[in-house]
Amino acid sequence: xxxxxxxxxxxxxxxxxxxxxxxxxxxxxxxxxxxxxxxxxxxxxxxxxxxxxxxxxxxxxxxxxxxxxxxxxxxxxxxxxxxxxxxxxxxxxxxxxxxxxxxxxxxxxxxxxxxxxxxxxxxxxxxxxxxxxxxxxxxxxxxxxxxxxxxxxxxxxxxxxxxxxxxxxxxxxxxxxxxxxxxxxxxxxxxxxxxxxxxxxxxxxxxxxxxxxxxxxxxxxxxxxxxxxxxxxxxxxxxxxxxxxxxxxxxxxxxxxxxxxxxxxxxxxxxxxxxxxxxxxxxxxxxxxxxxxxxxxxxxxxxxxxxxxxxxxxxxxxxxxxxxxxxxxxxxxxxxxxxxxxxxxxxxxxxxxxxxxxxxxxxxxxxxxxxxxxxxxxxxxxxxxxxxxxxxxxxxxxxxxxxxxxxxxxxxxxxxxxxxxxxxxxxxxxxxxxxxxxxxxxxxxxxxxxxxxxxxxxxxxxxxxxxxxxxxxxxxxxxxxxxxxxxxxxxxxxxxxxxxxxxxxxxxxxxxxxxxxxxxxxxxxxxxxxxxxxxxxxxxxxxxxxxxxxxxxxxxxxxxx
Amino acid sequence: xxxxxxxxxxxxxxxxxxxxxxxxxxxxxxxxxxxxxxxxxxxxxxxxxxxxxxxxxxxxxxxxxxxxxxxxxxxxxxxxxxxxxxxxxxxxxxxxxxxxxxxxxxxxxxxxxxxxxxxxxxxxxxxxxxxxxxxxxxxxxxxxxxxxxxxxxxxxxxxxxxxxxxxxxxxxxxxxxxxxxxxxxxxxxxxxxxxxxxxxxxxxxxxxxxxxxxxxxxxxxxxxxxxxxxxxxxxxxxxxxxxxxxxxxxxxxxxxxxxxxxxxxxxxxxxxxxxxxxxxxxxxxxxxxxxxxxxxxxxxxxxxxxxxxxxxxxxxxxxxxxxxxxxxxxxxxxxxxxxxxxxxxxxxxxxxxxxxxxxxxxxxxxxxxxxxxxxxxxxxxxxxxxxxxxxxxxxxxxxxxxxxxxxxxxxxx
Lengths: 561, 413
Known about the structure:
Helix content of chain B: over 70%
Structural class of chain B: mainly alpha
CATH topology of the domain at 1-98 in chain B: Serine Threonine Protein Phosphatase 5, Tetratricopeptide repeat
Radius of gyration of chain B: 23 Å
Largest interface: A-B, 69 and 79 residues
Structural class of chain A: mainly beta
Oligomer: heterodimer
Strand order of the largest sheet of chain A: 1-32-31-30
Mean pLDDT of chain A: 90
């Protein structure tokens, strides 16, 4: 049989035709916007003394835990008003033990001059086990910020003694052991919230999956060097957990009592906000290739409503590798929207809050869909980096393995639509790494939000915000009296321009991926030199602060009586 | 009997028609007309229109080789493998010495999951054709796909992982003697794999056999190829399916295209490799080029639709998905994708009309995502009770999937 004889069965013949409208041309308006946006936000790398290296002990065996560590937290542990940093670290594999100082968690004191000092040993925070995430808050209302460290098969609560040292109170607090799960949990992230509004912070844990080094399956090729990290579907999902703060230094697990035993997923980052606008903040838990969870704190108590709200799956009804998440008003309508990062070729998600607990896919309309296609994102934050009153998006970038190292990214918010301005941010900003955790704080107290980022097997990065705009700002740090002391869940509303522009923030430390940001509300005011502030405290009390001048950091206590 | 003088090759083939043609008298000219018409439509890839005409022709001459063959191919192109099977079998019976019906029988059997029968048919095609490049290519393509499927299935159990290790080692090693013997046993081994449990021995022998036979086919082609494009295409297939080396596959397909510019089959393969390799724009161009030549290339349509859906260009995806739904009426996937796209563009009633029957009919929704999408559509259609049911089902499916303890059954590192 020759070629031509068979040819009769083939259909058609012709010539190559020119393709349709090329994609780059369709994206032209975005490119133009990006060009216009560049040159605004500037970030500068480097903080002497901040020498933390996140170690995952990867040695080609491709243990699942190796890819998802790296949470860090902002903590003012010495109460001097300057944000310090705590970084979690990995451990030896498969033992899950911190076998040397290279695996220690680290606490760095902010020296107030752009440098940091390692005070880990003095603080007693070297830690145990394969650590993952951090949640910072004053859980015992003693005026000192404490640390909860999430990890693989072991979490730890460290109480701040107020003298530069911490005490591991996990056992005493009733937080040791598997709890109602019945087996050791792999906790990725944690979030402090006062779900029952009794003035004491409770603890929500985002657990990942049922895993042990001894049962981690082999994926990818069988030969050495050809293994791959397994897809999350290879593992059984884990239940989330909720612990009630008893007010005496102890906690009681109330996962079942609060009707949450069915909160199953491969939990990653947690975001908190009063997204329903009813004074009762709820939680969003990004899930890795599983249905995302939205825990609504309604009048009937806690309930999961991700499917009904439209955030359980992505815009066209699929799962992605949800990693980091954050709430913030992206489109300027006064309602907290939601952003969730994912891995390369998945595109990240924006869910726009339409009110009444309903969200719509905003990935296309905000431009993030195409901007994120080739990027893997982990921790993230909706933060106003240029103080123009619009929340920009900072994302820690990096693939799963060293061969897929990626830079961090900044997407400037141009009034509800993002432009990728990463390439114009600064000379070093394009450095690739396996970035994971990211936190946001005004480390040098200059009115501009800075970012600190961890990277697997790389030195951590502190990005000083050097944006020069002449825009004004306002920072508020709240202290609850009847409400929980860090005021987590309080909603701060900022009005400028005779009330024309309204911004609001829910006080929260849990941000992005397994990380904990500075507990304060930062507002960019643009050209406005004053703003009117209103605070709705978790206790229900509404405090009208009135007009305050821009460019200051205010400490506000909840009125008593 | 009849002559379709479109090509010399066709005329040569038609010259043998007297042995199996069954027409006579007035029916003969009508049969000729219908066959001509059906063939012309087939050549233009207008399969939907060709099928009823070829059916009419076949009714006039039920045992006719060409009527059965063309009808079988066109049914196959429309995703109707089950209906194609008897037609292709009739063609094979009419011309037991021809490899072409065997090759398409292989495709039809594979489409129906009858892998043993598919392997037998592909092997017969190679044997009858005495090493024709197209037959070798089709056989090797099938073998590679089966190798991948078997290896993937093995990853689900610890015993399977151990077998997969051995398979990879064997496949990476030098080709051993006895490939011919293993080829003879494929049908039996395939039967052993259809059981509920894992037959590790059968999986090992079958996968290594397929890998060796694909390699053997490639060697045979390289040695005797009149058309080096076919060799390059097979290399591309091997790189794409066995090694997931998409840049390598793209290179091979491009070399083949340099020899056969405008070959829609190569273009759609190139598009697939480009898409899998993370070049959606290149893939879009290649798929569009393939479709400009043959608007019915289903792989090209699938690539084009996948790109549009991935960018959530729902409006752009809908026309392509509609074509795919027409091309593959028995395939639910394009129907569901069309449902997704319609749900996002305000065509809720149309979306529900596609999603509801697909889900009711058991379309896989293991994590509940489609039920959640359907729930939102039903809510917008003011059908709250059904929406609530769909939401509950989404939750149930999601939780059931996540509760599966797969790791407990896996081999440890």
